[in-house]
Specification:
Elements (H helix, E strand, L loop, with lengths): L17 E5 L3 H7 L13 H4 L15 E8 L2 E8 L7 H4 L5 E6 L8 E6 L2 E7 L2 E6 L7 H6 L18 H16 L5 H5 L5 E5 L10
């Protein structure tokens, strides 16, 4: 059975984002996100990324951004760490006929959100449990899916779930819309334990570590 991706909403304290891309290889996705094509680390796990000396924030300057890249089904993916670049590059990542979906987990205040870009255009996005506010060139692209999933009424401005519903149930329902539409899947074992090459995409993290 597929792991899908809705399990990502249950990762408490998980600060990375995930970019899925169809139509480009993992290596090309890394380059589009700012990585040096010859600058990959040897394959490392999720936990080992934090041994690269990532500084998330510096006063008055950007921090370090690192990604691990791989493939799951038809989609390449990049797991983002630190001060990564994915949110600034959605249209660029999807150029030349590619498609890109980015999931951003909840931070201290902003909601978790999802964004979709295609062929150089940031098409749409919405916040999970804040689906009445939608953005992009086609903000209502997912509205029929959100209605079918019981998230919104057809007017796109009225929530259907009860106000006292457990928020994680709502997060899974809303993220499931994107999972089903694009057939996205990323298993917990791949994200956490698989050894995948990492690339620096911002700043100057230390890109070697002792794995002996």
């Amino acid at each position: 059975m597929s792991d899908g991706m809705v399990w990502l909403v249950d990762l408490d304290g998980w600060m990375s984002s995930v970019v899925f891309a169809r139509g480009v290889s993992p290596e090309e996705l890394a380059v589009r996100m700012g990585g040096d094509p010859d600058g990959a680390t040897e394959p490392i796990t999720d936990a080992e990324v934090w041994q690269l000396g990532i500084t998330e924030w510096r006063p008055g300057a950007d921090g370090d951004g690192v990604i691990r890249v791989g493939r799951s089904g038809q989609w390449s993916f990049a797991v983002e760490y630190g001060d990564s670049t994915g949110g600034d590059l959605l249209a660029e990542l999807s150029r030349d006929g590619a498609e890109v979906v980015r999931y951003v987990p909840p931070q201290e205040h902003p909601p978790a959100d999802v964004h979709y870009a295609s062929d150089g255009v940031w098409v749409c996005g919405y916040g999970l449990r804040e689906e009445i506010w939608r953005w992009g060139e086609e903000p209502d692209l997912f509205l029929p899916d959100l209605v079918a999933a019981g998230v919104l009424s057809p007017d796109g401005a009225t929530y259907l779930p009860p106000e006292d519903e457990d928020y994680r149930v709502g997060l899974r329902r809303s993220l499931g819309v994107v999972e089903r539409r694009f057939g996205l899947s990323l298993s917990p074992a791949v994200l956490r334990d698989a050894r995948l090459p990492a690339y620096a995409v911002r700043g100057t993290p230390r890109m070697t570590l002792d794995l002996s």
